[in-house]
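User: Hey, my collaborator sent me this sequence without any context and asked if I could get a structure. I don't really work with proteins. Can you help?
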Amino acid sequence: MPGTVLNLPEILLTDTFSGKKVPLATLVPGAVGIYCCGPTVYDLSHVGHARAALVPDVIVRFLRAQGYRVKYVRNITDIDDKIIARAQRDGIAAADVAERFAAEYHRDLDALGMLRPDVEPRVSEHLPEIVALVENLVAKGLAYVVGGDVYYRVAAFHLYGRLSGRNRAELLDGAGSRVEVDERKESPLDFALWKAAKPGEPAWDSPWGPGRPGWHIECSVMSSTHLGTSFDIHCGGRDLIFPHHENEIAQSQGAYGEHTFARYWVHNGFINFAGEKMSKSLGNVWTIRQVLDLYPAETLRYFLLTVHYRTGLNFEIEERATGVRFPGLEDADDRVAYVYETLAGARGELGVASGSDAAGGISPGEVTPGVADLAAAFAEAMRNDFNTPAALGVLSKPLAEVNGLIGSGKGVARDVRRRTLARFLADLRTVSAVLGCFGQAPATFLATRRDLKAARMGLDTARVERLVAERGAARAARDWAAADRLRDELAALGVAVKDGPAGSVWSL
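Assistant: No problem. I've predicted the 3D structure and written it out in structure-token form, which is a compact way to encode the shape of the chain:
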């Protein structure tokens, strides 16, 4: 509100346009508008799509946790050449293809705990605005019509190439190798704003005849419609810097004036598989759904957070006689399980239920050093360009301290011990709200992990349950020799058994 003094902490982010790490300064103090290029919905989403969605998801969560009002817009591209090709292959309407795979995209992202955007525009809902923007560009001499097609005149926009750091001469030298040359265009660099209809393809009316929009014009329209002609943060994968985002800038600033279109450009690195970017065009994809058939969703989410968003992430696979193994996901799975086991131990020590206020009845005061610093260190890491690997690293010392306090306490005074455990549980809820990890009941995650791991190992869980039950019966009968024999048999299967007051629980 006018006159309101906001005391928001400084947040740094790396802006692709300037090539620098800079403080976030929003158009409206205390408010952030974020646009993210969403999927073209013609197939199931792969792990690379998961990362592209997770980066803005965590940014939005953190900005809200820091006190910002965030409007998050992520589009659905439901008119596109690839959708039309899939529809022709399957013998159905292009709109039906788009509707099906938009629903599948939502299903996968919901499984990964992604926030739904505040607005999720679709191209098919913005045809009048697209036509109006193309008309604007034609009227200004920035676009021209050729036989029902409309092209952007790149030579007329002097800032072209600034985002990607390329000049027009270099682009012209390589244009013939990158795109099919259309002799009707004034320049090989010119790109389609509107495409004339072809037989058998969906089409919409326009001043230039029936047709459909080009890819780049769609995002210019959807971002400006829902965030204004200038907004704060534009997210997307590095592969979109050129030509997609470069063309967005040319369209938007050409139409609305050469003020800043997006104030900051945030681009995530690729998921690399066998040394190459994971992509459907290369055919080297693992879908989100394939991975979630093998690992808990939170394991994949954690794995994607272990590398800074701007850096490439290797998705390694080991082929084994028993099937494939993913070393990075195995490590992430073990780490997430460790955190949940620590949470379970802390809650058990305090006698609190999952999600309840552990600090109830515990007076404020001294806690152990690592836990005392947890919340501040986590926020500091995230304020430094949303550095999730550093933020995850902050957890190591507090986790070690808390595990040292569970059971023995190692000579720490009882009140300090209880305060430390209560603070740890409270601060982990804050971490969970930002990273989208560690928010389940520990027993729920650990049971899901155990069952999926057993399936990956080809383990007969019915047999394991039977052996655990037989061992429990032997212990009840005080037949220690039989109990030990059954424990050894379980250990040979890779199964560990933990005995407690409520009975025995097995894990892998």
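In plain terms: Confidence is low (pLDDT under 50) at residues 1-5. You can pass these tokens on to your collaborator as they are.
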